[in-house]
Amino acid sequence: MTKKIRVSIVGATGYTGAELLRLVLGHPDLELAAIVGQSKAGQRVSDVLPSFAGILDGEVEAFDAASVAERSDAAFCALPHGASAPIVEELCDRGLKVFDLSADFRLRDPAVFEAWYKAKPSGRFGKAVYGLVELYREALRTADLVAVPGCYPTSAILAIAPLLRSGLVEADGIVVDSKSGVSGAGRSPLPSTHFPETAEGIRAYKVASHRHTPEIEQELSVAAGREVKLVFTPHLVPYTRGILSTSYMVAKPGVTAAECTEAARALYQGSPSVVVRDPGVAPDTLWVRGSNRVQIAYAHDPRTGRIIALSAIDNLVKGASGQAVQCLNVRFGLDEGAGLRGAPQWP
Ligand SMILES: NC(=O)c1ccc[n+]([C@@H]2O[C@H](COP(=O)([O-])OP(=O)(O)OC[C@H]3O[C@@H](n4cnc5c(N)ncnc54)[C@H](OP(=O)(O)O)[C@@H]3O)[C@@H](O)[C@H]2O)c1
Fold first, then answer.
1. Is 212 found in the same domain as 121?
2. Residue 130 domain-assigned (yes or no)
3. Do residues 71 and 129 share a domain?
4. Helix, strand or coil for residue 158?
5. Are 175 and 311 part of one and the same domain?
6. Helix or strand or coil: residue 167?
7. Residue 134 sits in which domain range?
8. Cα–Cα distance, 24 to 4 (Å, whole number)
9. CATH code for position 193
10. 83 CA to middle of ligand 1, Å?
């Protein structure tokens, strides 16, 4: 029997951390080493995360780099940005392969990072591989530090990149309109995510200022081979999980939805997480819920000459923890879909 890969989860008591726990426990090649929290350190796992009662005994640990490193081959860091970088640096220094779910290492231009995050980049800034497996699979095979993409960027980039790479749409004038479930905001209660203030309404937030904008632009600039600037408007929608992104692009003359579909299918051939539906289908977040899958579909509006890309993911799985496990699978030479083959929970 081959030896299992020992993984620790730092930030295991939050939403993406809990999702990582669930995925690691169901993964045939991984062994859970440490469950690390901050304010919940010292509490029983089953008290902090009641869904794991009867599954996980023991307590949430406080972070101790030496102790985590001694027991682990790899670590997932599921921490707020800013808090993540120093912990990531310590674990990398100790030789662990690190999969960081925060935004601390996703951008490549330090000036862009400082402008959007109002913070100085950390030592390994610019050294991480961007963990969108479908576009960076080869680079991930040897990565020591992986910057797992943001949830909105995952949904938008996967849908738009094939069209830019194939020259089917203009790089100017792209508009990304996204709707996210409330778990995207994390576990800490906030007035803006309080049930009575979210349950029956829908609103845009961080209009023209959301921090995922430069991340989407960075990766679509790579796809287009030139600088891309776009409009990105996120919305908070009263469901727990899921992101639906509707992206509008100017079609090059004569381009059809069928050609866009073909280009995406060609790019994602052999990618187990991506399903490109036929034109005419409008993906639903319920069709990917609880799974590491993205469903993408394209439409063409002949009146306006626009291509409309529709993409649905589960923000906690393909948008975060599932994608992190997918990156680990590639990094450690495992089957890319190991532990991630579960069908969506539907209805
Ligand atoms: N939620 C999503 O859909 C999503 C998707 C993609 C990426 N992300 C990113 O993933 C990261 C985690 O998000 P989340 O939604 O899981 O957040 P969360 O539910 O708020 O959980 C945060 C975790 O970080 C720990 N923590 C908080 N402050 C800390 C500090 N100063 N030092 C060390 N640990 C600290 C918490 O521990 P205690 O509970 O013990 O205090 C908790 O385990 C964030 O960077 C987020 O942007 C989230």
1. no
2. yes
3. yes
4. helix
5. yes
6. coil
7. 5-149+318-331
8. 11
9. 3.30.360.10
10. 9
Ligand 1 atom at minimal distance to the Cα of residue 41? 40
| Count of structural domains within the chain | 2
Same domain, 41 and 104: yes
CB atoms under 10 Å from CB of 48, counted, come to: 18
Radius of gyration of the chain (CA): 20
Q: How many residues does the chain have?
A: 347
Do 170 and 232 fall within a single domain?
yes
Contacts of 151 (CB under 8 A, 6+ apart): 180, 184, 212, 243, 313, 315, 319, 320
> What CATH number should be reported for the domain holding residue 88?
3.40.50.720
Q: Let me know: does 240 contact 182? Beta carbons within 8 Å.
A: yes
Asked, for residue 65, whether it belongs to a domain, the answer is yes
Q: Has residue 342 been placed in a domain?
A: no
43 lines ligand 1 (CB under 6 A): no
Q: Are residues 203 and 246 part of one domain?
A: yes
As a whole-number percent, the residues of the chain with pLDDT over 70 amount to 100
Q: Cα(78) to centroid of ligand 1, in Å?
A: 5
Give 50-97 pLDDT, tens digit per residue: 999 999 999 999 999 999 999 999 999 999 999 999 999 999 999 999
Tokens (6 digits) for 42: 């010292």
Contacts for 331 with CB less than 8 Å, ≥ 6 apart:
74, 97, 140, 141, 142, 143, 146
Cβ count within 10 A of residue 34: 22
Residues with Cβ within 8 Å of 121's Cβ and at least 6 positions away in sequence, in order, are: 104, 110, 113, 114
The protein residue with its alpha carbon nearest to ligand 1, atom 20, reads 186
Identify whether residues 77 and 181 lie together within a single domain. no
- pTM of the entire structure? 0.98
**What does the alpha-carbon distance between residue 190 and residue 232 come to, in Å, rounded to a whole number?**
23
Catalytic residue numbers, as ranges: 151
**CA atoms of 252 and 232, how far apart (whole Å):** 21
**DSSP labels for 105-172?**
TT-S-HHHHHHHH-SPPPTTTT-SEE--HHHHHHHHTT-SEEEPPPHHHHHHHHHHHHHHHTT-B-SS
Does residue 336 fall inside a structural domain?
Answer: no
Q: What single letter denotes the amino acid at residue 150? A: G
In this predicted structure, the answer to whether residue 282 has a pLDDT above a threshold of 90 is yes
Residues 42 and 132 occupy one common structural domain? yes
Question: Ligand 1 center to residue 10 CA distance, Å?
Answer: 9
